[in-house]
Specification:
Layout (H helix, E strand, L loop, with lengths): L20 H13 L3 H18 L6 H15 L15 H5 L19 H12 L4 H21 L6 H11 L33
C-alpha cells in the first residue's frame, strides 16, 4: 500500500554502512555530485568530521583517521573524486564483512545421544564379532546412559538404552540385560533442584 508523503526504509537505497546512518550516505552522494574537485574536497572533509563524531576514537589516532577515510571511500563506492589524505586502495577489503559460516546440518535421529555416538553405531555395525566389538559396545551403552540421564530429563531407563543400541546398529548389538551390567557410577538419578521461598520480613 502506497501512502502519499510516507517514505519507507524498504523503498530506499540500501545502506552501505548502517552504523553511519542514511544522512551520511546522502551527504556522500551530494559530495559526489559537486562539480569541482575543490568543492568535493571540502565537503568530504566535513563528512569525515561528522563521521568522527559518530564513531568514537579507540586506539591510535592515525588508525582511526585511516578507518574514517576508508569508510568514506567505501560509502561512495570509490566514485568520490578527491585527494584522499591516506591510501584507501584496500578500503573494500577492510570494510567488507566475512561470509557467515554455515552451521553443519547433522541428521541425528535422537539428538541427546549426539553425533559421536551415532558415528560409533556405524563403526559397531561393520566390526567383526569379538572382544574389541564387545568392549566398544559396552563403552557405547554406558555413554548412551550418561547422555540419557543428562539430556533425557533425568531418565536412566536401561531397557531404552538396549533398545536404541539394537535399533541404531540395525540389530547387530543386542544387550542381554540379564547379564549385562552398566557402570554403577552412572546409575543414579540427577538431583532435582529445589526452590526455597524467601520469608517475608
Amino acid at each position: 500500500m502506497n501512502i502519499n508523503g510516507m517514505d519507507y526504509n524498504t523503498q530506499r537505497e540500501k545502506l552501505l554502512m548502517p552504523e553511519y546512518g542514511r544522512e551520511v550516505q546522502a551527504m556522500v552522494q551530494h559530495a559526489i555530485s559537486l562539480p569541482t574537485k575543490e568543492e568535493r574536497q571540502r565537503c568530504a572533509e566535513k563528512i569525515v568530521e561528522t563521521m568522527a563524531r559518530m564513531v568514537p576514537q579507540n586506539g591510535d589516532r592515525a588508525e582511526h583517521n585511516q578507518k574514517l577515510w576508508d569508510h568514506l571511500a567505501f560509502i561512495s563506492q570509490f566514485k568520490l573524486d578527491i585527494d584522499y589524505p591516506v591510501d584507501v586502495s584496500n578500503a573494500a577489503k577492510i570494510v567488507s564483512r566475512p561470509e557467515p559460516i554455515a552451521y553443519p546440518a547433522q541428521n541425528i535421529p535422537v539428538r541427546h545421544y549426539g553425533k559421536m555416538i551415532f558415528e560409533t553405531f556405524e563403526k559397531l555395525k561393520s566390526m567383526p564379532e569379538g572382544e574389541e566389538r564387545d568392549a566398544l559396545a559396552r563403552m557405547t551403552a554406558n555413554q548412551m546412559k550418561r547422555n540419557l540421564i543428562t539430556w533425557g530429563h533425568g531418565s536412566n531407563n536401561e531397557e531404552r538404552v538396549a533398545s536404541d543400541l539394537a535399533r541404531f546398529t540395525d540389530g547387530v548389538i543386542q544387550l542381554d540385560l540379564d547379564t549385562f551390567a552398566f557402570d554403577k557410577t552412572i546409575g543414579k538419578e540427577m538431583p532435582q533442584q529445589t526452590t526455597k521461598k524467601r520469608k517475608r520480613k
